[in-house]
Automatic annotation (TrEMBL):
<keyword id="KW-0732">Signal</keyword>
<feature type="signal peptide">
    <location>
        <begin position="1"/>
        <end position="30"/>
    </location>
</feature>
<feature type="domain" description="SLH">
    <location>
        <begin position="187"/>
        <end position="250"/>
    </location>
</feature>
<dbReference type="InterPro" id="IPR001119">
    <property type="entry name" value="SLH_dom"/>
</dbReference>
<dbReference type="InterPro" id="IPR036568">
    <property type="entry name" value="GGCT-like_sf"/>
</dbReference>
<dbReference type="InterPro" id="IPR009288">
    <property type="entry name" value="AIG2-like_dom"/>
</dbReference>
<dbReference type="Pfam" id="PF08239">
    <property type="entry name" value="SH3_3"/>
</dbReference>
<feature type="domain" description="SLH">
    <location>
        <begin position="65"/>
        <end position="128"/>
    </location>
</feature>
<protein>
    <submittedName>
        <fullName>S-layer homology domain-containing protein</fullName>
    </submittedName>
</protein>
<feature type="domain" description="SH3b">
    <location>
        <begin position="261"/>
        <end position="323"/>
    </location>
</feature>
<dbReference type="InterPro" id="IPR006311">
    <property type="entry name" value="TAT_signal"/>
</dbReference>
<dbReference type="Pfam" id="PF00395">
    <property type="entry name" value="SLH"/>
</dbReference>
<dbReference type="InterPro" id="IPR051465">
    <property type="entry name" value="Cell_Envelope_Struct_Comp"/>
</dbReference>
<dbReference type="Pfam" id="PF06094">
    <property type="entry name" value="GGACT"/>
</dbReference>
<dbReference type="InterPro" id="IPR003646">
    <property type="entry name" value="SH3-like_bac-type"/>
</dbReference>
Length: 472
């Protein structure tokens, strides 16, 4: 029985030329053939012998009544493209309602999606062109259309192998040949894992320069990696929003030369990166002032650059070889000459007060909340200020040191208390820390290290009231 499909959607005017190739081709399949060079930098492909008449355009809409696939999360990289494909009727989900974002997509499924996208008027043949493609297959009409249009072909043994996955390289080839877009490939390889003149080289460079596909890294395309369902519809969405406006030749066909030395440039201001060397091309991204770029090709007024994430064209008048002046490092804050909040034998009249005598300009007795005062077992003069509850407090003498003697005095007291900030704090008897007294003044004080604090609290004696002079 013959089947006839009447198209209801037309996406963009796409030409299909003869001799086209798909993914998974046997060696006997025809290699890509570059389209004749044209002088114009942009083209809207004209209808070829196999093209169909334009029909109603499919909008790039992502808002429809259909509930989004649960595995297509808003805000993620593939959301817009998958939602567009869903709302456009190009894809459907699995039985559990999911789209299967990370699932590999088969040759059959790829043909079906492209068939729905092109929506041609196509009468399927009564005889299958492939030994393993039955007329009863749900993919029969799509596959025979693709084969007839030379968007896809089978293997040398006349099999289609529709359940095999499609690679990234072959997907780029299918999309390129489906458009019939003219293209003059560059001699400069954008990726190190594809070779100039190799299989699908033309199609990969076409898709890359036109912003349809990207690499897996700065220099790798991953041509033999199988493409996922989410990746395929994303490439198709990017192709769709070009609205048929394609760069028709490689960057070095614009009178540019390949940069071989001193290829680093910096933006002198906020700069648009575009798909082609003209303001007529859409903006890919906006580059911040001072952005470091690797220049690949240099032409009149324009440069083809790589920013570490993507490649595109920028106006060369806003580039400089002089790196931006690094911002001045913030000046280190001048150390404040905090007073010393001393207790125990450092207090006025006690045995260690000699370290501070004649070096202070004021001495005030105050309390510091949140600490308790403890004596080490067996030593009535060896006291420790230890963190405690907010209702606990310690009596200290806040001593303001003369400015000219501040650094040396602080160093002397540190040595007396055996405090060394370069050593692990937990094992030291004392750590010098800032505390705030009841008058709101911040001062340095010597607080028990964590190991000593644990030992003293378990074995020592707490001074009720927190006043060292009233410890007995």
């Amino acid at each position: 029985m013959k089947t006839h499909h009447t198209g209801t959607r037309r996406l963009i005017t796409l030409a299909v030329t003869a001799g086209l190739l798909t993914g998974g081709m046997a060696p006997a399949a025809a290699a890509p053939v570059a389209a004749p060079a044209v002088s114009a930098s942009v083209t809207t492909p004209a209808a070829g012998p196999s093209a169909v008449a334009p029909q109603a355009a499919l909008p790039a809409a992502t808002d429809c009544a259909a509930k989004p696939f649960p595995d297509n999360t808003p805000g993620t990289a593939y959301y817009t493209a998958v939602r567009w494909a869903q709302c456009s009727g190009l894809v459907s989900g699995y039985g559990d309602g999911t789209f299967g974002m990370k699932r590999q997509i088969s040759r059959n499924e790829t043909a079906q999606i492209l068939f729905r996208y092109r929506d041609p008027r196509w009468t399927a043949p009564t005889t299958s062109p492939f030994r393993d493609l039955s007329r009863s297959s749900v993919f029969y009409q799509a596959v025979t259309w693709g084969n007839n249009a030379k968007v896809i072909t089978g293997y040398a043994d006349r099999t289609w192998r529709g359940h095999q996955p499609i690679t990234r390289a072959h997907t780029a080839a299918m999309l390129h040949r489906m458009t019939g877009a003219a293209w003059r490939a560059p001699h400069l390889d954008p990726f190190r894992d594809i070779a100039y003149g190799g299989p699908q080289y033309d199609s990969i460079t076409w898709a890359h320069v036109n912003g349809i596909t990207k690499g897996y890294s700065a220099r790798e395309f991953g041509p033999q990696r199988n493409i996922t369902r989410a990746e395929l519809v994303t490439l198709l969405y990017r192709l769709h929003v070009t609205n048929g406006q394609f760069v028709t030749s490689a960057p070095n066909a614009y009178g540019t030369t390949q940069c071989t030395s001193n290829c680093v440039r910096y933006t002198t201001g906020t700069l648009n990166m575009r798909r082609g060397p003209s303001t007529d091309f859409p903006v890919i991204t906006q580059l911040a002032a001072g952005k470091k770029l690797n220049v690949r090709l240099i032409g009149t007024g324009w440069a083809y650059v790589w920013d570490g994430t993507r490649a595109g064209w920028v106006s060369s008048r806003y580039l400089t070889s002089t790196p931006p002046r690094p911002p001045e490092p913030p000046k280190p804050p001048q150390p404040s000459q905090y007073p010393l909040a001393v207790y125990g034998t450092l207090r006025n009249g006690q045995s260690a007060y000699f370290l501070l005598k004649d070096k202070t300009i004021s001495e005030v007795t105050v309390r510091v909340n949140g600490y308790g005062l403890w004596l080490r077992p067996g030593y009535s003069w060896w006291s420790f200020m230890i963190p405690s509850t907010s209702t606990d407090s310690v009596v200290v003498e806040r001593m303001k040191i003369r400015s000219s003697q501040y650094a040396s005095t602080l160093r002397d007291v540190d040595e007396w208390e055996r405090y060394d900030p370069s050593q692990p704090l937990a094992s030291q008897n004392y750590n010098r820390k800032l505390v705030t007294d009841r008058q709101g003044v911040r001062s340095w004080s010597y607080i028990a290290g964590s190991q000593m604090a644990s030992y003293v609290k378990s074995n020592g004696t707490k001074i009720i009231g927190g006043d060292f002079l009233k410890r007995f």
